[in-house]
Amino acid sequence: MPQKLTLQSIDVRAVSVPLRRPVVSKVGLFKDWPLILIDLHTREGIVGRSYLEPYLRNAARYVVPALHDLAAAMQGQPLAPLDRFQSNRRSMNLIGYEGVAMIAASGLDMAIWDALAKAAELPLAVLLGGSIGAVPAYNSNGLWLTGVATLAREAEELMAEGGFAGLKLRLGRDRLADDLAAIGEVRTAAGDGIKLMVDFNQGLPLGDALHRCHALDDQGLYWFEEPIAYDNTAGYAQLARELRTPVQLGENFYGPRDLYKAVCAGAGDYVMPDLMRIGGVSGWLRAAPIAAAAGIQVSTHLYPEVAAHLMRVTETAHWLEWQDWADPILKQPFAVANGHIEIADVPGIGIEWDEAAVARYRYDF
Questions:
Q1: What is the pTM of this model?
Q2: Which residue stretches of the chain have pLDDT < 70?
Q3: DSSP single-letter state for residue 83
Q4: What are the start and end residues of each CATH 3.20.20.120 domain in the chain?
Q5: Contact 299, 226 (CB under 8 A)
Q6: Contacts of residue 217, Cβ cutoff 8 Å, sequence gap at least 6
Q7: Do the Cβ atoms of 28 and 340 come closer than 8 Å?
Q8: How confident is the model over 169-184, as pLDDT tens digits?
Q9: CATH 3.40.50.2020 for domain 126-342
Q10: CA nearest 121: which of 345, 303, 281, 305?
Q11: What would the CATH number be for the domain defined by 7-121+355-361?
Q12: Rg, the chain, Cα only
């Protein structure tokens, strides 16, 4: 094992992969899903890999140059992710800690940790002091704002994909009756014992969210996720105070301090950081203990491969959100069985590219 790893260069490519079930939500319609693939090359010959999910194809025009700028500043330096997390953020503080600056820093951070774990010949979870194993997950690959009549069949399919005991359903239709009908269809197909997480994708103003969530508060739902705009902390605190159903938020926390502010404000009952925004592995390692100190359970948002490792070292680990959206470009997608994602006993995160698929789905930006 090398005494240290030194950054030599990065290769960055953009791909857009087809979704088996198009995303239909308050944030838009997506039939394909863009990914930014990062290969971080070291002088010692080890390659760290990660990917980003920027939602929009054109976002690569802004994120990729930021990745190259950060990597150029690190060239020839030892890989020390906790140090680089701080310095990369500081290097961009004049344009703000949110948005592209954090997204680019997060992508490099995940690739650095992958390289370090490979150098140690350990899975990432083991390098971080934990162990590999199964991580409880719910299926988030469907149940969008589509016709209510399609939901029962889709719920059956989603449960069968990996023996799932939890599903995510999107709500926020124009009429309360349609949301109630959607819940009924899924429950009829999946059974009353299903854990049903519902996501509004920030689709409601606060007043409408109060009406809708109070009206659904007796439905036995597992959580209400992001009913209102992510930055309305006071509104989330009001919802969390008034509702019996737990309130989930956090995919838009930009760094550990955002999580801390939300916890201090009582803005939610659960949190679910997104690795692209929280700061990659380094940001997660600093954010998760804040939630744990407050006794708040931590779930994940996107990036299931990296997130699975982190859930194994998170004190108040809760649920992993399972999506297979990156599977088409992975050489060996993670296995799912009995409602759990399985971490393979391989060095690093466990992601390698299927280069033929990458060539097929690659696009210029």
A1: 0.96
A2: 1-3
A3: H
A4: 126-342
A5: no
A6: 243, 244, 245
A7: no
A8: 999 999 999 999 999 9
A9: no
A10: 345
A11: 3.30.390.10
A12: 20
